[in-house]
Amino acid sequence: MEIVLAIAIGVLTGSGVWLILRPRTFQVIMGLSLLSYAVNLFIFSMGRLGLVINQAPVLVDGVAQDLHHYTDPLPQALVLTAIVIGFAMTALFLVVLLASRGTSGTDHVDGRHAHDAQEMP
C-alpha cells in the first residue's frame, strides 16, 4: 500500500512540476492543482496511523483510548481543509485566467505569443 501511495505522490508531483513550467496559463493552473493533490496525499500518508486498515475512526466501548486502536483524525481533517482551500484557489485562478485572456488576448504566462518572443532580442 505504501509503495503505491509513494508512486502516486511522485507521479503527481512530477506531472505538476512539468505543467507549471509550461508557457500557457491553463497548464500552470492544472500543474498547481496536481501539486496540491500530491501534497494532500503526502499529508495524509504522514499521519502516524493514516494507512492502517480496519481500525475504528471513533471511540468504541471496551477498546483502549489510544492511537494504537484508532485512526488519527488530524491528517484527515488537514486534508479535508486543504481540499476545500484548493478548490477555492482553483476557482480564483480560473477567473484570473479568463480576465487575463480577455484583457491581453492570449493565454501565455508572459502575455506574449511564442513567435513574438522569438523576434525580440
Could you walk me through the main structural features you see in this protein, from its secondary elements to its overall organization?
The chain has 121 residues and is an all-alpha fold. The chain has one domain (2-51, 71-119): Helix Hairpins. 64% of the residues lie in helices and 0% in strands. It has 4 helices and no strands. α1 (2-20) packs antiparallel against α2 (25-45) and α2 runs antiparallel to α3. The longest helix has 32 residues, at 73-104. It is elongated. 7% of the residues are buried. This is Na+/H+ antiporter subunit C. The chain crosses the membrane at residues 6-22, 34-57, 77-99. Belongs to the CPA3 antiporters (TC 2.A.63) subunit C family.
What are its keywords?
0% strand, transmembrane, 121 residues, 64% helix, elongated, NUOK/Mnh_C1-like, mainly alpha, 4 helices
Mean pLDDT: 82
In the CATH scheme, the class would be Mainly Alpha
End-to-end C-alpha gap: 52 Å
Uncertain segments of ≥5 residues (pLDDT<50)? none
CATH topology type: Helix Hairpins
Globular, elongated, flat, extended or rod-shaped: what is the shape? elongated
Q: How would you characterize the largest beta sheet? A: none
What string, H for helix and E for strand, traces the elements in order? HHHH
Number of domains: 1
Number of strands: 0
- Which structural class fits the helix and strand makeup? mainly alpha
Q: Evaluate the radius of gyration.
A: 21 Å
